[in-house]
Write a structure and sequence with these properties.
By secondary structure, the chain is an alpha/beta fold. It has three domains: 23-242, HUPs (Rossmann fold, 3-Layer(aba) Sandwich); 265-333, no CATH class; 343-410, Roll (Structural Genomics Hypothetical 15.5 Kd Protein In mrcA-pckA Intergenic Region, Chain A), CATH 3.10.290.10. Helices cover 42% and strands 13% of the residues. The chain contains 17 helices and 13 strands. The strands form three sheets. It has a six-stranded mixed β-sheet with strand order 1-6-5-2-3-4, sandwiched between helices. The protein has a five-stranded mixed β-sheet with strand order 7-13-12-9-10, with no helix packed on it. A two-stranded antiparallel ribbon has the order 8-11. Helix 16 (353-359) crosses helix 17. It starts with 22 loop residues before the first helix and ends with a strand. It binds one RNA strand through residues 183-185, 245-247, 255-256, 270-271, 273-277, 279, 299-302, 304-305, 328, 332-333, 365-368, 370-372, 374-377, 401-404.
Length: 414
Amino acid sequence: MGPPGRVLFAGTVSGETQLTAAPDVDQLLRGSVQVFSRAGLAEKAAGNRPLRVKYGVDPTSPDLHLGHTVPLNALRAFQEAGHTAVLIIGDYTARVGDPSGRSETRPPLSAESVAAHAQTYLQQVFKVLDEKRTEVRWNAEWLTPLFANTDPDPGRRLLGLMARHTVQQLTEREDFQKRLASKTPISLLELLYPLMQGYDSVAVKADVEIGGTDQLFNLLMGREIQKDFGQSVQVVITFPLLEGTDGVRKMSKSYGNAISLNDTPEDMFGKILSLSDEMMWKYYHLLTREDVAALKAGHPLDVKKKLGEIVVTRFHGGEAARAARTGFERVFSNRETPAEIDDHVLSKSPLRLSEILVESKLAPSKNEARRLIQQKAVDLAGERVAQDREVTVHSPLLLKVGKRQFRRLMPPAL
RNA sequence: GCACAGGUGGCAGAGCGGUCAAAUGCACCAGACUGUAAAUCUGGCGGGCCUCGCCCUACGUAGGUUCGAAUCCUACCCUGUGCACCA
């Protein structure tokens, strides 16, 4: 990502301008990194009609995570100011694969998995957005006809679009430059991606489009393409990318560092507690409206637990959040057993401990189960078991693997 | 199309006829430690078994050479690079 105001396309981007803006514009820009342009936004906001604020997600994985909620919160702020959120489900573009920030081509997704992911996205997104002020659009609606040759006027749209943009323009972005330099393949489809996303803006007549800072190129392309189609250009606003639990890379399911909105309250709370203290402040800043300066006076552990509660409360409610907190304190701080433990009814008894671990899904294979036993990770009824052996179960027995996996073993059904 | 280089475990990346279930790093799991599921250190990390040893499946795909192949040969598939005009 370049510095704010960097000119990406000579002569086409105004950069951030320093005009005095109406106070409500500042509200809308809370937490943003770049705006193209502030003056444009002030002008549109003064227009006395609800603005159409576009945000697109490609359903490439089944979950939304905390990182997605940063721009979603901004969308929500627009809604609260009376504007309309236009949520684009990129069911078409998901199959193309956004190259933004990528060092290689995405694996192709089937139409079925895209559709399934889209459904779970929609279930999760209204935990943040106001459904009544949201217009949901699927971009296959206009991209399929555009590319399927059923367009009544392909010369004007598809061919025109491709004729007006150049390879140089499309490959100027840093991720492509890197791939070019490292001789990593770039598919034509990926090259076209920004054109598609830009065309989405034309199709929904976006006044504003928001996205992560990694989206800057695509977002600005939307302005170019709206211009091609004689529309007034959208205001582009970018928001910071939230790092994942590793504190290094941006939050992403595929990096395994994501906190999903679908995570259980316990998981969500635990993952937040595992953040470094430094990352905790960033989370506070991007996900809450708390006064960070005041919080810095507190004990880091207390402040982190508070963050956990705030976040879990938002997605699971206050009661679940309190339960997650006490559960965490119980299991990790006091090393007690959690309040709720899954039962596992043994298939037979006596049975080898390694087999029990596998059938109760505490270990994926018997080899792994044996390793866990050897590594002193297995605790049966409060006792370390260091060697695989037969276990007879007459009454419920507590089985623990590692620090946080518990099962209550039940005797086999008669 | 021709030539050259390359396709190895979740990823990156060694190996280039036996000692390779495959170095190393990351990720992941466990143990110790800790306010923490952080950091650090230690161990582990394909599957199976009567586990200090044996068996099965794996190094793009399919065959072949060999007592023995991730390593050599052939064909095919895929990727990258160069050539392609003047000749």
